[in-house]
Amino acid sequence: MKMLRMADIWTEVGSSIASIMFLYTMFQRYFPHRLRVYITKYVNRILGYTDPYMEISIYEFTENLNQRNGAYTAIQTYLSSKSSKNAKRLKAQIGINNKKLVLSMEDNEVMTDEFQGAKLRWYISRTPRQTQSSSSYRAASDESRYLTLKFHQRYRDIVTGLYLNHVLEKGKAKLMRNRQRKLYTNNSRDDFWCKRALWSHVAFDHPATFDNLAMDPMKKKEIIDDLITFSKARDYYARVGKAWKRGYLLYGPPGTGKSTMIAAMANFLSYDVYDLELTAVRSNGELQKLLLETTNKSIIVIEDMDCSLSLTGRRKNKKDKEEDTEEKDKEEDQTRVEENRSSYDSKVTLSGLLNFIDGLWSSCRGERLIVFTTNYIEKLDPALIRRGRMDKHIELSYCDFEGFKILAKNYLNLDSHHLFENIRPLINETQMTPADVAENLMPKTINEDDSDICLKNLIQALEKRKEDTRLKNEERAKVNKLSSKDGEAIEGDSLTKDGEANEGDSLTKDGVANEGDSSTKGETNQEDESTGSNDKDTRN
After folding, report:
1. Using CA atoms in the order 98, 101, 103, 104, what is the torsion angle rounded to 10 degrees?
2. Which cofactor does it need (predicted)?
């Protein structure tokens, strides 16, 4: 009897479900879209009156300009400490310094929490997010996570007034304790189909510091003081009405330590580093989005500005157009076209880059350094490196004796040595970069502990560099001397030819003139004679 009743119940349930599905299908297919939206809205409102639970959603990205939501990161960090105890499905990843695994909630997982007697549930889910793709006519579908907090409406005041603030404070505190500095790079257009963000990152673990940076101690102290002053100048920048940012231009020959300087600055201030590759940026609008995705306490780096796109020297070339020859202009135009082709047809303009540095959008973040590096400062547009954009210009030149002593301490652990006096005049007279000096000081074998060998290697390299420089200078002097002699000979020949030509012209002109005069006189005499004879005939 009971079995029959259960069978009847399941039959009725199945029939009801089939009817509901049929009605839903008819509703979706034959009802107009506006009517469906209208009915759905009021059905949800009616269900809301009967449901005693409330929900609060925190999305990974904000709706405005797709910025990353800081609240999401803080809350996710807070939940990760509790999920290992409550959640059933977890995901693991390597933590700071690769020491241990960090557990966090898996997608579509539920975790419970309790606060002042209120029972709460957290859900983590995914939702599609539309982002602008590398194609102008096609949008790339991307997914964004979001957290949902569900609780009974009787706890509304506790949750909105106390619990959420408690979660944010705990999450931010844990973020600061476990903070690991990161090195970011912007994703190229080819990666936009699979990347969820404009930036991708790795852990930043560069060992460079100002202590082992080979440069003049006074200049080093000046840079350190400038960085300390900037990091503590929040109120000052607000008082003078400027965005809390500062620009640094590092210039000098290759191998003089520009990249090492940036790493030392990041380690000194504990800032993240954003390495911006301009050739991977499609437009000025994308450049603005990249700027919005950066964080406070960061260094934005654009290396080798003289090689980035074709943005350098444009305004200067327009000023000096009258002085440049037509042939030189054609060569520059051809070079610019080739550079544009090699940069994936990027539409970033000089104006867009200038606005990126100090336009209105540059004030969206605070405590940020913008660093440019270049091997040839004269190639950069003056508007790009003027004071106010690049506030401090730092020249990193060839290694001097003070820089050598720092390298000797770093590589050989030497404060003094009898060969230092032999190295002092050589290194001051020779142009050798710190990278070359360091390479010569580095032991070439594992068992090579004798510092004398390394110092002698450096002395030999310096002497060879000095001799090569001398030979080049002599060769250059010979070429210049021959060029000057050839120029004088050509000038003398031209003067001789001009003199002969002028003399020939004058002789020719004189001969023609004399001949013309004599012929004219002869004709005149003949006319006179004929006139006289005619007169005689008339008289007769």
Report:
1. 20
2. Mg(2+)
For the chain, the distance separating the N- and C-terminal CA atoms, rounded to the nearest angstrom, is 180
DSSP secondary structure of 147-165? EEEEEEGGGHHHIIIIIHH
Q: How far is CA 340 from the centre of its chain?
A: 17
Could you tell me where the beta strands, DSSP code E, fall in 413-518? Answer: none
The average confidence (pLDDT) of the chain is 78
Query: DSSP per residue over 235-248, as a string?
Result: HHHHHHT--SEEEE
pLDDT tens digits, residue range 157-194?
999 989 999 999 999 888 888 778 899 999 876 554 44
- Write out the two tokens for 418: 């009898």
What domains does the chain contain, in order, with CATH numbers? 26-133+140-180 (no CATH), 186-395 (3.40.50.300), 401-494 (no CATH)
User: Where are the strands (E) in 178-239, listed by range?
Assistant: 182-186, 199-203
How far is 493 from 500, CA to CA, in rounded Å?
A: 11
How far is the CA of 28 from the CAs of 17, 18, 35, 45, in angstroms? Answer: 16, 15, 10, 19
For residue 246 the two structure tokens come to: 């500062």
Structure confidence by residue, pLDDT tens digits, 380-398: 888 888 888 899 999 999 9
Locate 239 and state its tokens: 């008082």
What integer is the mean pLDDT of 365-383? 90
